[in-house]
Specification:
The protein is mainly α. Helix content is about 35%, strand content about 5%. It has 2 domains: about 5-145, Glutaredoxin (3-Layer(aba) Sandwich); about 160-315, Glutathione S-transferase Yfyf (Class Pi), Chain A, domain 2, CATH 1.20.1050. The protein has a 4-stranded mixed sheet with strand order 2-1-3-4, with helices on both faces. Bound molecules: glutathione. Glutathione binds next to loops.
């Protein structure tokens, strides 16, 4: 089970993330019986969830919106987990289901692994295909190429994969998952180790990014997406709710400018809903925040201020171009934006 409602992490001192359960891959050659096909699959995501948000960014950058439709769940789960209460009649308009668990049940009745996002569902059968958040975005970048928009960036270039994988492994361990280990620790020592690890790795990443615009090569890659999805949540939820409070992102000049640069790049900030992020963490993890009170801050205005990272050079989209405007039905409501 993943972190669930936060309470499942208690009863042991260190938080452990379980492995994703369904790992079928949607590929160009359809070797798992799931060929890439426009309109056949639906991505189900929570805008609150950092793992799902990777897929939201990739889908936008690659221009897969028409090929891979999107269902967004309510940021606050109930005891049956993720639900489609943001949609008319509380049903996903394409799948016709009220709970994401229905797609999991259609795949394997009462499977014990827990219901998580991101999830890709096969529309004709209504069955979950994959909730393998680590592989999912790599496949969007490499296997879905035939359906990418013209000018889509190469987010996982063949010649840079070793370096990207290495950077992402450290980011995953110490940053993406490190904040969860700090937040869900129930022992002082475990919390301190995780929290120290978060900031140690962030300092190293800050040094790496001091004189280069992106983490690997000179363009945006999957590594930047994975760091961004944690950084954009940092001050809103990880600093307070998860007690990763040695410093705020806004106090680290390099990482704050790096995060703003990406936030202001089409495909990144236009997927972020700070309202969903805050309500999910503060209302769902009742073990950590029993009152469920959602703080008013932080002030988000800074996200739109100049970052001056162009000075470092780099070509954010390589030989490609930025994505066009967000579809009207996927725009972030005003309360979720700076
Ligand atoms: N699928 C992965 C990672 C994805 C994940 O943890 N997603 C969270 C949201 S951020 C989730 O859906 N958790 C289940 C829940 O909260 O009910 C896992 O099982 O650990």
């Amino acid at each position: 089970m993943s972190e669930g409602n936060g309470n499942s992490a208690y009863g042991r001192k260190a938080f452990k993330r379980s492995r994703s359960h369904f790992t079928d891959r949607i590929t160009a050659d359809g070797r798992d019986g799931r060929p890439v096909e426009a309109g056949r699959y639906r991505l189900i995501a929570s805008r609150a969830c950092p793992w799902a948000s990777r897929a939201l960014v990739s889908r936008r950058l690659l221009g897969l919106e028409d090929a891979l439709s999107l269902g967004v769940v309510d940021p606050v789960q109930d005891d049956r987990s993720w639900r489609f209460t943001l949609d008319p009649d509380g049903r996903d308009p394409v799948l016709g289901i009220r709970y994401l668990s229905e797609a999991y049940d259609a795949r394997q009745p009462e499977y014990p692994g827990g219901v998580s996002v991101p999830a890709i569902v096969d529309v004709p059968s209504g069955k979950l295909v994959t909730n393998d958040y680590q592989q999912l975005t790599l496949d969007l970048a490499t296997e879905w190429k035939a359906l990418h928009r013209q000018g889509a960036p190469d987010l996982y270039p063949a010649g840079l994969r070793d370096e990207i994988d290495e950077v992402m492994a450290d980011i995953y361990e110490d940053v993406n998952n490190g904040v969860y280990r700090a937040g869900f620790a129930t022992g002082q020592k475990e919390y301190e180790a995780a929290c120290a690890g978060v900031f140690h790795r962030l300092e190293l990443l800050g040094q790496r990014l001091a004189d280069r615009r992106h983490l690997v090569g000179d363009s945006i890659t999957e590594a930047d997406i994975r760091l961004f999805t944690t950084l954009v949540r940092f001050d809103a939820v990880y600093h307070g709710h998860f007690k990763c409070n040695r410093w705020k992102l806004t106090e680290h000049p390099v990482l704050w400018a790096y995060a703003r640069d990406l936030y202001q790049t089409p495909g990144f900030g236009d997927t972020v809903d700070f309202d969903h992020i805050k309500r999910h963490y503060y209302q769902v993890h009742t073990g950590i925040n029993p009152t469920g009170i959602v703080p008013l801050g932080p002030d988000l205005a800074g996200w739109l201020t100049p970052h001056h990272r162009e000075r470092l050079g780099g070509r954010p989209f390589g030989d490609g171009t930025p994505p066009g405007p967000v579809r009207e039905d996927e725009e972030i409501p005003a309360q979720g934006r700076p």
